[in-house]
Amino acid sequence: MDTNGELEKVINRKIEIKKVPKKKVKLRNSLTYLAFVGPALLFFLVIQIIPFIMGVYYSFTSWNGVSSAIEWVGFENYRKIFTSDPNFFRSFLFTTKFMLAAVIISNLLGFSFALLLNSALKSRNILRTVFFIPNVIGGLLLGFIWQFIFVKGFASIGNLTGMAFFKQPWLGDETTAFWGIVIVFAWQISGYMMVIYIAALQGVDNTLLEAAKIDGASNWTLLTKIIIPLILPAFTICFFLTISMAFKIFDLNLSLTGGGPFNSTQSVAINIYQEAFQNNRYGLGTAKSILFFLVVAIFTTVQVWMTKKKEVEA
To answer: Using the 8-state DSSP alphabet, how is residue 62 labeled?
Structure first.
């Protein structure tokens, strides 16, 4: 009798569980999701969305960033940018040129390092660490280190060797300063790109490569016809990251050249910073930042669309 009684209790519990309303189950699941996702959404709302909306509002105002007097001026800030601010468009031209050079060089270096360190080298783990370390160093610190290298180190090497390459005014001339910033940026970011490419290369099935080798495929054919098409998603990610990072360059540019000489290497980020926080024209600075955001969004969207299309075709 005791056994039967316990069996009846178990059956009744199961029936009660089955009778739990679906609304309560959905509510319980929603509360569980909210407990995990809610804090992240809250922080994203407070740190990203609300400041962005406030920035859009301030772009239509005349405000110095300090006083409580905020005057609504409509599209006046945007009119000033397009009609009487040639420095902004010069900085845009410099940033676009820098982005193109930096993206190509950074990805070439990162992919080359990945191919090298994905092979059976005994020192590959040490080399991976060495190549990745520059990405850990802060941009401002890295810029001051390389400023010393360009100004003092290269000059000393030039005096010792007599090589014209090292005797150039690396940060004092428009052309060499441009390539100096590109070199430092590529040196810093290529290790990070290398990690992404290595992860993609390790996902390539070796049996495909071995079969192609048996059929007589050369190393170049393996690379262009098998490896690269298989890791195109990694190229999509790396191009997206390098384009956005290159467009937003600020700390390296500030510490290396400060936008000089004569604003010839001034990035858009520095131009916006000077407009808002040095010239105390916060409304005009935020209007520039909104335009900058739109341009970066268009560039990255087109890039992702094009590379994703290549993935599908491959």
So the answer is: E
Tracing tokens 């428009």 back to the chain, one arrives at 174
CA distance 256 to 180: 9
So what's the pLDDT on residue 98?
94
- Selection from 31, 198, 10 nearest residue 113 by Cα: 198
pLDDT at 67 > cutoff 70:
yes
Helix (H) or strand (E) holding 61: strand 61-62
Q: Tell me: the pLDDT tens digits for 191-227?
A: 999 999 999 998 888 888 888 888 888 888 888 888 8
The amino acid at residue 32 is T
CA separation for the pair 102, 187 (Å, rounded): 10
48, 174: one domain: no
Residue 286 pLDDT greater than 90, yes or no = yes
Residue range(s) defining the domain that contains residue 30: 13-58
Cα–Cα distance for residue pair 182/178, rounded to 1 Å: 6
d(C-alpha 214, C-alpha 227), whole Å: 16
Statement: residue 1 has pLDDT above 50: no
Beta-carbon contacts of 223 under 8 Å, excluding residues fewer than 6 positions away, are: 115
Domain check: are 48 and 116 in the same one?
A: no
Q: How far is CA 191 from the centre of its chain?
A: 13
Interacting residues of 276 by C-beta distance below 8 A, sequence separation 6+: 65, 282, 284, 285, 286, 289
Report how far residue 92's alpha carbon sits from residue 82's, in angstroms, rounded to the nearest whole number: 12
Count of domains for the chain? 2
What mean pLDDT, rounded, does the chain reach?
85
Q: Is residue 292 situated within a structural domain?
A: yes
Within a domain: 299 = yes
> Which residues sit opposite 310 in a β-bridge?
none
Other Cβ atoms closer than 10 A to 49: 11
Residues 58-76 have a mean pLDDT of 87
Tokens 């676009």 belong to which residue? 96
